[in-house]
Amino acid sequence: MADLKIQYQKLLDSGQLKADRDQKMAIDALNDICTALEAVPPRGSIIWRALGRKPEPVRGLYMWGGVGRGKSMLMDLFFDNVDIIRKRRAHFHEFMIDIHSRLRVEREKEAGDPIAPVVKLLAEETRLLCFDEMVVNNMADAAIMSRLFAGLIEQGVTIITTSNRAPDDLYKNGLNRELFLPFITLLKDKLDILPLNGVNDYRRQRLGDAALWHCPNGDAATKALSETFFKLTDFPPQDSEHVPSMELHVSKSRTLFIPRALKGVAVFSFKKLCAAANGAADYLAIARHFHTVILVGIPVLGPENRNEAARFVTLIDALYEYRVKLLASADAQPENLYPVGDGRFEFDRTVSRLAEMQSNDYLKLGHGMSENLGDEMRQISDK
């Protein structure tokens, strides 16, 4: 049985974290949940049958606070150490994409309410659901969330989630928000609400004074970006050959290979990301899943590599709208990245966004879809 409090204290003793009252409260709460989940007898066991009923669901937790408050770190610590089999962790937006896909299948059966069978199947698959960055940006999600999550909790599923927003601020000013209000009531009733509002911005502290845009491409830029990657992810540099990769699911029929991906940080080469046949849906999937992207090998752009330039513009739009932190190496500074030729005028917006993405104000923003997401990208995102 894991003791999260002991492991958290080790991080403090090693200097990886600073003492933080709110984080301490979160660790205490998560440790209690961990203990309660591990104490539940296995499904179908003699003890389960002796009870004559399903055990009471373990109460969940909603942790919210600004960027860099350590929410994902706390979730990592909890999820990696809770010793149960049926558990699932997912980015919230990807989870809702999965839900809508399941609902479509049920609607095609024309067998009545599609939510009930989806809830039943999910409850059979897992009894612990952990979400990163709960945020609601569309009416399709807002309209079903109350019934969906009420059903999951009733079926005994424990829900742990992080968010940059307090429950009352979810889907704020959204279309038909009255349909969403029961979900906020459900959160407050069924989950403990824990704010992490301290002053320590751990993600910004780990970046320190590190440069975000390295010019030109070369060994020095690669070395600097590698050092920043290890600092952001706590991965030991001596094990650099063993940095994990992953496959990111864009749709049922499409996945993207991420050569280096750890703790919300992904590393790409410009050639693989913008010279290959990728599009807005791919870039939006990346922007949703990672809070930081490291992009290496950006060349000088122009009419001769128009397609690559167009993909780069779309990539930056997606990262910007989801407030992703961008670190890069390039053969020129942003203002000189597309120096002359047809298409230079259209590239000005990208230059402006690249400049803003290096500002302190931008770096302080939480990861997630901005309220002014363009209609075209919103439609792609919601598909």
UniProtKB/TrEMBL annotation:
One of its GO terms (cellular component) is cytoplasm. Keywords: ATP-binding, Cell cycle, Cell division, Nucleotide-binding. The keyword ATP-binding applies. InterPro entries: ATPase_AFG1-like (IPR005654), P-loop_NTPase (IPR027417). GO terms for molecular function: ATP binding; ATP hydrolysis activity. GO terms for biological process: cell division. NCBIfam families: ZapE. This is Cell division protein ZapE. It comes from Sphingorhabdus lutea.
